[in-house]
Amino acid sequence: MDVSVIGSAMLDTIIHTNRLKRFKKGKKPYLGFPYSSKTEIEELRFDVGGSGHNIAVGISKLGNNVIFIGRIGNDPNGEMILNNFKEEGVDTTYIKKDESKMTGFSQIFITPNGEKSLLTYRGANNNLIPDDIPEAIKNTNWFVFTTVTSDQTVEAVKKSVELVKNNGGRVLANPSITMVKHRKEELTNLIRKSDVAIMNKEEVCELTNTRNEKKGLKDLLKLGVKSAVVTLGKKGIIASNGENYYKQKPYNVKINDTTGAGDGFTAGFLHWFMKTDSFKDSLMFGNATAALNIESVGATKNLPSENDIINLMER
Length: 315
Description:
The chain is an alpha/beta fold.
């Protein structure tokens, strides 16, 4: 198996409205609408998402064999997620239906300029346990983990990392700020055992206790990870493989929806790294994948093909 993934799988409710207001409280920006009022929205749609889902589907769509390991609720939303994985070619053998919790759910608010804020319920995602991890995962070439937060799910990821590393596989860590804030010690130990870590500026600065993304990148490498990438949104990326430092600007595209842009980068990066073993070229490929992703609406519905990505890189 090329890739195994553990992370969240959610049903997303995506709301577009021009009536949401952006404001600051102190130095932190917020998104809100009037209290005790009815706010009209311009567009409503439903999609399957979650970082684990998005990365697994993205890698699969680029032609790789992918297993997703996780839990969904025994409910219609869970069936929608399961069917989506199957349609996108992701192996669902090790997805279990949970009887005690509903399928994970996110409500996503999209602003007129394409930025987003989320409300998230992890639900059945948090019920993954070490016994859910199949022995077959030891045969995977790459294991990818995104954010997990419950005690038992963190233990499941630890077990997966040990199985994969002990059998010559490699690990890519792609946690969110939630895991950084609530599982910092466990995450730090997992990153020490990882081959690649991909994080955004907020995440790496929080993890390494700094305000500077360059210092955060250096400190991330000091933890023992072989290669690290820090995504900077409109400013592009910085990265290092321990020998060379790289800085890339984003591709110039129209921003329609940033949902899943980071997941698109991770999927594109890993696909090209598995194919070429070139860290520098994989950064470019991931960057181009993310750019084409934010040109379209939705996290995975309109993911670009390998040829589309290469064409953007060659412009």
